[in-house]
Amino acid sequence: MLGLMQDQPLLISNLIDFAERHHGDGEIVSRRVEGDIHRYTWADVAARSRQVGNALDALHLVFSDRVATLAWNGYRHLELYFGVSGSGRVLHTVNPRLHPEQIAWITNHAEDQVMCFDMTFLPIIAAIHSKCSTVKHWIALCDTDNLPADTGIPGLRSYEAWIGGASSTYAWPSFDENSASSMCYTSGTTGNPKAALYSHRSTTLHAYAAALPDVMCISARDSILPVVPMFHVNAWGIPYSAALTGCKLVFPGAAMDGKSIYELMEAEGVTYSAGVPTVWQMLLGHLKANNLKFSTLKRTVIGGSACPPAMIAAFNDDYGVEVLHAWGMTEMSPLGTLCTLKNKHLLLSKEEQMKILLKQGRAIYGVDMKIVGDDGMALPHDGKAYGDLLVKGPWVVREYFKGEGGDPLVNGWFPTGDVATIDADGYVQITDRSKDVIKSGGEWISSIEIENIAMAHPAVLMAACVGMFHPKWDERPIVAVVKKPGQEVSRDTLIAFFEGKTAKWQIPDDVVFVDAIPLGATGKMLKTRLRELLKDYKLPGL
User: Fold this and answer.
1) Residue 245 is a catalytic residue
2) End residue of a domain, out of 141, 163, 197
3) Is there a domain that residue 131 lies in?
4) Which of 177, 233, 504, 530 has the fewest CB atoms in 10 Å of its CB?
5) Is 439 a catalytic residue?
6) Distance between CA atoms of 524 and 276, rounded to whole angstroms?
7) pLDDT higher than 90, residue 190
8) Omega into 100 within 30° of 0, i.e. cis?
9) pTM here?
């Protein structure tokens, strides 16, 4: 017997329709590439998204054709989120921090028909447009007055000219909710990037889940500034959850420095934000240097890489901002876990609560997970056993676009490449990437734990722990350190700082001071590149 409920597909167009109908006067504020502040409403987003749908129809794009964006967080990018997917095409958000050759390769692999880009990235477009064989239309996200006279890009049009003549009356098509809605390429450091192809169903379910109280807790009472880029796993799904709840959105554009972010937060009454640790380091540095406080910010989600304990403490203790530690990946749309306390934890001491909050958090409904040993057998969720973390769920990738890399699943589960523990309450703690775990004398050492201790030292800005060859112990850990500006710390002082904070055999054998630690396109540390830079390094005494 089937249920007797109405059958309505879960489509992204439903989200923007809802935002317009029930939160039409909700504000969208953007700092534009030109530097000024742009303001309008969810009703305006909806109307202009329909113009995008008509403009794409006029280009004779067919169902599931790909439309690429190379853009910052802003209102025009938001319109493309809904106009492209809502009209049945596939939004392809391209990461501008990738090498131009990779961007060209990705564009061709995706078979993008249209490329929409912020003027900031005109030099990239100028370098790659002749190599992008599938792109037929180039759209600059600006008005005609800001379009240079001679760019060398044939047929280049301004976004405002492109959609300006299109009607804002548009009937969103209805189709199978499992149809592709958007795609994001992984930023892997080996081999060519692979694309996760999201569906309307998976995106809508993810938007619902992300807004839950024990996840991002997004509501119409929030003013949200997503620092995480809209080209990085669709800004962690925040644009969709924002439409679902009708909250105020504040976009920072290209100005990602601490001063610019802080001033925008204060001017727009931002209550909630989300981003990677490297961005928050700049923000916290600006606050401390200028003796500033937040007047409205209440919480922030930090993900992308492990959040150092010192950063959580600074937000909580110095500025009264709750930190929500998150974990996920491109293949998971991206949310998998988010760390909030349970009722029984509220009476614990601050120190005991912090031990929990340093973990990556509990699984979100819709995501199932387990850890397995080398034999593939499931390990206990006791907070002690650690193994390879596997996941599955309705917004977890089944396979990559065009079948790249073959079948990624293991008996229906997706291997994340992370090593983790899961405790009896379901809290996940990522101990390392499987390729970064250090094995010393038959015992495993977590590079993340070593990095967290190093970054708790007041003179350390950033730290990366890697294993180096040792003839007796196989590997021994060393830590590469970037010092804070104007701060000094010696190797011996930093080594001594580890004493009492971890087992003696886990203390790094050496400290290497560097000017910078290589970062990938999403702000993660590139330890493979760090090892290349240290290829001539030898451990002390060898």
Assistant:
1) no
2) 197
3) yes
4) 504
5) yes
6) 9
7) no
8) no
9) 0.88
